[in-house]
Design goal:
heterodimer; B: alpha+beta; D-Maltodextrin-Binding Protein, domain 2; Dipeptide-binding Protein, domain 1; about 35% helix; globular
């Protein structure tokens, strides 16, 4: 399918251009914030000598443009550099953090995506009756409550009162998979509650939209049951918008979980990024920003491609 | 007690302190500080400490950007981690006096200009090498060199020369300093092999524990150092988890995931204390929350404006509403009963009439602008609002400008003429005054420049007669209280909590939070 290949190439090129622009934005952003990395490292206890020494050692006296291009040169060779604050290799540090974030996002997605779609289907089947209203009510309520509050409530009830799962979702390499899953049970619960409504409502709306079509009426007339009509005929035709919103939420599970990570003390990318932003550690912020932007762009690209493939009119343009 | 009284008895032996003074000082240590309760609680816990097991703690303040280099330590977690693997020459004992760590003993020349620290015999670093006087000199040198980044540079500046002589380190000062041992107790000045010049963040020292697992800003695991010279450290393993979120930290303690936490939010400390199996510990310390004005900048250069502001603040209300009672009222000096040579002044009270009188006398009638931010101290914006209200009672208008947390310490503090801030305090007056109130101090955040004050500070530093020294500090405090730019409404207590799983908390330990950060060493699994 040459048009698809061309489209893919276009998307990827556009994605790379976007990444480049994002890196400039992040760099400029960290430069215009008040204070610099030396000031942030030494904090209130900074003396002028210590500041000057640290600035010199960190290469902060070079002009910003030179620093940006030095960094860009490293990236193009696959070198993310070292953190200004701790001197650690960024790639190593991010590696474990990012795999933790993906681990949490994976399990949250495994539970929330099928659950959201299932609930959406049930809501359509029992449209305007009590199951629909209950599902919509509960999920809309859970998306409306700030996630840190849900986190605290879950932590209090399940962690402190019932003691089913640990309230601190600290995972490390020496833990077995079972221990890790037990540790992340509560953050997964909270994330599921947070992303459920968006996907569920979109599934419901998209399928209801299709349900107005003539072929649905035909399917009903030929005697299929309510669920079969939705599952066989309505759902495949409503896949594009659903995939779109699922991808957006998956991206959120990777890049938007800072609050949940902080509340449950989960060693993921979010906390890592926040620490380094507050210390003006530009190379780390750049690297994290690039990875987050990459995830976002990639998932959106997947959503586009799936919706094109699922729609014959887009698959075979005139 | 032998080590702790060494400093005093050394002075007695050298004929610089009378026996009566010594007894009085030792009794005062026992009465004012923790010695009495130390003995009492150790008597109550007749069973004594048990060895073995794991103590887990959840602390605030760590960040993934931290380093194990003690020179760069700047938060509670870094301090605690350094306390596990390393030791300075000397450190503050529970009663606030100085006890030997890497140094076994120390003494000074008659004029307190030259100090000799004798290195403890036969102790080794955790990499197996024995500790030499050269290691000590190199370690101190790393914090005082021209290109150091150390947070301890300020206190190392007064040192003229350091030499290793056999098993002793000789430190020569520019000017006499009777408080040098207190300076050497600074938590940055950890003794490292070769001074840590090759690998500052290797985490190798002489501490009672050895780091096994390090994940910056996340988790640290340390195991008992089998070759440690002393008997410090009861638990076999200590696990430290960084939990920066207040609610999460308290929940971790309540759910039994950790045994010890710091910084219980004062607002909820009462509720936490009521939970079964949880003990909340409050410790008064030298830390204080302040409003600081540049006394070289108008309108604060006008002393009547400063006095109006000092009479226009309701200190008790701040302690009740900002600290929720976990603290004590301040008196516009940075010194309180946590300092060994403290002299009490008449408490300055909220007096709207006097405030209005001084404001009228000053001839200034415009509003006063106060800058504040959430991170200048917990509840700072609320404290600013309370100040605004109490000043309004005297007809003085205070404008509040809320600044972002980001960049507050670089853009506002020590930069703008009037703002909110905090001080952690120092172990002795000399260090506190030198850090923030000497004319030439880097952190003179009130721009307080008083020649008489400076001279008194230098003379007190060289004064070995404690009575005279105490009087000089009292006079200095009085100058600062009346002419300084510091408005100190409150001293904040440390509020920590532990679960019933561990025992051995000692009330009233001098120094930092969590028993001067020795709680995990001194407590044990019950």
């Amino acid at each position: 399918m040459p048009p698809i290949v061309k489209l893919l190439a276009q998307r990827i090129a556009l994605g790379l251009l976007l990444l480049f622009l994002v890196s400039i934005l992040i760099f400029v952003g960290t430069i215009i914030l008040p204070g610099d990395v030396a000031q942030s490292i030494l904090g209130q206890s900074a003396t002028p000598e210590a500041l000057a020494n640290l600035r010199r050692d960190l290469g902060l006296n070079d002009p910003p443009v030179a620093r940006y291009f030095a960094w860009l040169g490293g990236i193009l060779q696959g070198d993310l550099g070292t953190a200004l604050t701790s001197g650690q290799d960024i790639a190593t540090a991010i590696g474990s953090r990012f795999s933790n974030t993906l681990f949490l996002a994976f399990w949250a997605a495994i539970i929330s995506v099928p659950l959201a779609i299932l609930l959406g289907l049930v809501a359509v089947r029992y449209k305007d009756r009590w199951p629909d209203k209950l599902i919509s009510g509960v999920t809309l309520a859970s998306i409306s409550i700030p996630e840190f509050l849900i986190g605290y409530v879950v932590m209090y009830v399940i962690g402190v009162k019932l003691r089913w799962f640990p309230s601190v979702a600290m995972i490390n390499d020496s833990m077995s998979l079972g221990e890790k899953l037990s540790a992340i049970a509560m953050p997964v619960m909270v994330l599921t509650l947070v992303v459920l409504a968006h996907m569920m409502r979109m599934t419901r709306a998209a399928i209801l939209n299709v349900m107005q079509s003539a072929y649905i009426e035909t399917a009903e007339l030929k005697g299929l049951s309510g669920f079969q009509v939705i599952y066989r005929h309505a759902f495949p035709n409503a896949v594009a918008p659903i995939v779109n919103v699922v991808m957006l939420n998956l991206a959120y599970l990777v890049v938007g979980v800072v609050v949940v990570e902080v509340v449950f003390v989960y060693p993921g990318m979010g906390q890592y990024l926040v620490d380094h932003v507050s210390k003006r550690d530009v190379p780390v912020v750049q690297a994290c920003g690039l990875i987050f932007a990459g995830v976002y762009i990639l998932l959106n690209m997947v959503a586009d491609i799936v919706s094109i493939l699922s729609n014959p009119r887009l698959r075979h343009p005139k | 007690m032998k080590d702790q009284l060494h400093y005093l008895s050394g002075l007695v032996n050298a004929g610089r302190m009378s026996r009566r003074e010594f007894m009085g000082r030792a009794a005062a240590l026992g009465l004012t500080a923790a010695a009495a309760s130390t003995f009492m609680s150790s008597a109550v816990m007749a069973a004594g400490p048990k060895k073995g097991g794991t103590i887990r703690m959840g602390l605030q303040g760590g960040s993934t950007t931290d380093s194990l280099d003690p020179a760069l330590a700047a938060n509670q977690v870094a301090l605690m981690v350094n306390r596990l693997w390393g030791e300075p020459l000397v450190d503050q004992a529970a009663d606030g006096s100085i006890e030997g760590k890497v140094a076994e003993s120390f003494e000074s020349s008659a004029d307190a200009r030259v100090w000799i620290f004798k290195i403890r015999n036969g102790i080794t670093f955790s990499n197996g090498k024995s500790v030499t006087a050269a290691d000590v000199v190199e370690s101190l040198d790393r914090h005082s060199g021209e290109d150091t980044k150390s947070g301890a540079l300020g206190i190392m500046r007064g040192i003229k020369n350091m030499t290793a002589d056999g098993d002793s380190v000789i430190i020569e000062m520019e000017t006499p300093n009777a408080d040098l041992p207190y300076l050497m107790a600074d938590y940055h000045l950890i003794i490292q092999p070769g001074g840590g010049k090759d690998a500052p963040d290797a985490g190798i020292g002489t501490g009672p524990y050895v780091l096994k697992d390090v994940d910056m800003g996340v988790r640290f695991v340390a195991e008992k150092n089998p070759n440690y010279w002393g008997d410090l450290g009861n638990a076999e393993t200590i696990e430290l988890i960084v939990i920066n979120d207040n609610t999460a930290r308290v929940a971790a303690l309540q759910s039994g995931q950790v045994d010890l936490i710091d910084r219980v939010p004062p607002r909820t400390a009462g509720l936490v204390a009521r939970a079964p199996g949880i003990n909340v510990h409050t410790t008064s310390g030298p830390g204080h929350y302040v409003f600081i004005a540049h006394v070289d900048t108008d309108p604060f250069a006008n002393q009547d404006v400063m006095l109006a502001l000092k009479y226009g603040i309701n200190r008790q209300e701040m302690v009740d509403k900002i600290l929720f009672g976990y603290g004590s009222v301040g008196n516009d000096t940075p010194i309180n009963a946590a300092y060994p040579l403290f002299t009490e002044f008449e408490q300055r009270e909220y007096d709207p009439d006097k405030a209005a009188h001084h404001m009228k006398k000053s001839g200034y009638d415009g509003p006063v602008l106060l800058r504040t931010s959430d991170n200048s101290f917990p509840g700072a914006p609320d404290a600013a609002a309370l100040f605004q209200q109490s000043l309004a009672g005297a007809g003085i208008k205070l404008d509040i400008k809320r600044e972002p947390n980001d960049g507050y310490w670089s853009e506002v503090w020590n930069n703008k003429p009037f703002c909110t801030s905090y001080w952690g305090g120092r172990p002795v007056q000399d260090q506190m005054f030198t850090t923030a109130y000497l004319s030439t101090a880097d952190w003179n955040d009130t721009r307080f420049k008083n020649e008489q004050f400076d001279q008194m500070l230098l003379s007190a530093r060289a004064e070995l007669d404690l009575g005279k020294r105490k009087q000089t500090y009292a006079d200095m405090g009085s100058i600062l209280r009346d002419e300084g730019g510091l408005i100190c409404p409150m001293f904040n207590d440390f509020v920590d909590a532990s679960s019933d799983r561990i025992a051995g908390w000692v009330e009233g330990t001098a120094g930092y939070a969590l028993m001067n950060s020795y709680a995990p060493h001194r407590m044990w699994v019950a």
